[in-house]
């Protein structure tokens, strides 16, 4: 962890979609449907990737200190719904990324240590005037963990599992 690179969060990733034309059957309750399906899919995926629903924890009373992902004392992964008065062409057309796009990601500006108090995985669904932006943020330390730390043979040693409720 000697470089600045080790302390940043993983680059956030996002998907930009246009809404169906007004009056289209799909347009009715679009955001609600997206949120319901996203939460259902996420709850199924987190059964297999449950550390993403945890928080970093440190046991100070041990020497040396013990660092682990605690899934038992965590509120889980975070799903956020937001709305802005911006259209898809406002985001898609410029030759540079607008500063407002940073607000479409929950972990913007976070560092790895924030995983003690902030979710390790956060998904933000931002409703635009004529579209939807889905931003996914994941803590760099958990995403870049060595495979040996999260392999199925070592998981019980590093992670405590629980049923994930979103």
UniProtKB/TrEMBL annotation:
GO molecular function, one term: transferase activity
Keyword hit for Transferase: yes
The entry's keywords: Transferase
Name of this protein: Uncharacterized protein
PANTHER family, A to Z: FAMILY REGULATORY PROTEIN, PUTATIVE (AFU_ORTHOLOGUE AFUA_3G14730)-RELATED, HXXXD-TYPE ACYL-TRANSFERASE FAMILY PROTEIN
Alphabetized Pfam families for the sequence: Transferase (PF02458)
InterPro entries the UniProt entry points to: CAT-like_dom_sf, Sec_Metabolite_Acyltrans
Classification of source organism: Eukaryota, Viridiplantae, Streptophyta, Embryophyta, Tracheophyta
């Amino acid at each position: 962890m000697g470089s600045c690179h080790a302390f940043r969060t993983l680059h956030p990733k996002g998907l930009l979609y246009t809404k169906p034309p007004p009056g289209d059957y799909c347009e009715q309750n679009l955001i609600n449907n997206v949120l319901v399906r996203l939460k259902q899919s996420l709850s199924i995926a987190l059964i297999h990737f449950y550390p993403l629903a945890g928080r970093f924890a440190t046991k100070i009373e041990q020497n040396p200190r013990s660092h682990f992902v605690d899934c038992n004392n965590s509120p889980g992964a975070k799903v956020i719904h937001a709305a802005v008065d911006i259209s898809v062409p406002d985001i898609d057309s410029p030759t540079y990324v607008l500063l407002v796009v940073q607000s479409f990601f929950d972990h913007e500006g976070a560092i790895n240590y924030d995983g003690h108090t902030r979710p390790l995985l956060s998904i933000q669904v931002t409703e635009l005037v004529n579209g939807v932006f889905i931003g996914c943020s994941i803590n760099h330390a958990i995403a870049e963990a060595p495979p040996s730390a999260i392999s199925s043979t070592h998981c019980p040693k590093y992670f405590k599992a629980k049923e994930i409720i979103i």
